[in-house]
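Design request, tokens follow.
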């Protein structure tokens, strides 16, 4: 199986690194990195160094390149980029994709398959999500700092049996992967937790613990979760009846001083995934006639704030609600 990881940041670097180390040499599976810049040059020269919480290792892929023409058609393409880079990454990676190629996005949003389907040639579409905190520490170096590292994936439509070899490949690489029957439930379960926390922590400049304790922020957080729960119903996604309570409990389980990744990006003036987390909810909720006034308020406030504007560059022209 030829597996290409598109994007070698924290997520792609960790999971791609695990796969490349396990199948070094390419006799059983060929693991390829599609990367760029100094990160690519370092990987080409010395390999990818992965610093995980429980191990450190050097991964040498079968090939690392920025040119899809060197790779050819892949059996599996894993997208591990930020939401605002997905369309551009898909355009770049399109030559890798054929009718029998399985495409697996591992992003924070829930609508990655729709974005990819609008850009890529016809293929076998999957969706997935991961629970990991990881980042590029320097060119050719990725550090994993938290999370269970669990990976959930499954087909957008059709049966799961044909993807059992993908699950087997991941597990042979030491990746805690699960091929699930209902991937929508898996990705929305993560989304209903992440999106409200991203928005509220960024708006108030508060940690998880402070947001949960705030008389103004906690009701907003819970209300946004309920808006996403209702949106999931409108989109035909089945979630547990107590998903909001479960999501709030997840937040309580984090160290109280935890900050969301979007909050950190806002504080540092970096581009954020505001469209992935909040813009999507606003657009889909209003399109389907749902009540998303709390999410709309947070989205608009973050867009308008002058001191630390979030997501000041739109992912696509005309995308702002």
């Amino acid at each position: 199986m030829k597996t290409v990881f598109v994007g070698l940041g924290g997520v792609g670097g960790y999971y791609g690194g695990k796969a490349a180390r396990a199948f070094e040499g390419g006799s059983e599976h060929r693991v390829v990195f599609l990367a760029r810049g100094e990160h690519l040059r370092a990987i080409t020269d010395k390999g990818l160094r992965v610093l995980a919480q429980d191990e450190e290792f050097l991964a040498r892929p079968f090939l690392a390149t920025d040119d899809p023409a060197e790779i050819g058609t892949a059996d599996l393409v894993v997208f591990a980029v930020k939401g605002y880079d997905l369309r551009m990454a898909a355009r770049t990676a399109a030559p890798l994709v054929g009718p029998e190629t399985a495409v697996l996005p591992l992003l924070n949003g829930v609508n990655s398959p729709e974005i990819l389907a609008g850009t890529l040639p016809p293929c076998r579409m999957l969706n997935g999500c991961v629970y990991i905190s990881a980042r590029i520490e320097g060119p050719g170096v990725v550090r994993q700092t938290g999370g269970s590292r669990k990976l959930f994936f499954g087909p957008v439509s059709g049966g799961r049996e044909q993807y059992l070899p993908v699950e087997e490949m991941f597990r042979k690489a030491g990746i805690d992967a699960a091929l699930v029957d209902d991937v929508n439930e898996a990705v929305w379960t993560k989304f209903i937790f992440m999106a409200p926390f991203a928005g509220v922590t960024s708006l108030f400049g508060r940690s998880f613990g402070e947001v949960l304790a705030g008389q103004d922020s906690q009701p907003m957080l819970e209300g946004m979760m309920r808006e996403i729960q209702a949106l999931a119903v409108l989109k035909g996604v089945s979630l547990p009846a107590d998903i909001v309570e479960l999501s709030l409990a997840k937040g309580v389980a984090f160290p109280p001083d935890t900050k969301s990744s979007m909050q950190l990006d806002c504080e540092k003036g970096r581009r954020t995934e505001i469209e992935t987390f909040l813009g999507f909810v606003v657009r889909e909720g209003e399109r389907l006639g749902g009540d998303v006034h709390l999410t709309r308020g947070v989205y608009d406030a973050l867009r308008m704030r002058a001191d630390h504007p979030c997501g000041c560059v739109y992912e696509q022209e005309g995308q702002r609600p």
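Comment from the thread starter after seeing the answer: thanks! Confidence is low (pLDDT under 50) at residues 312-320.
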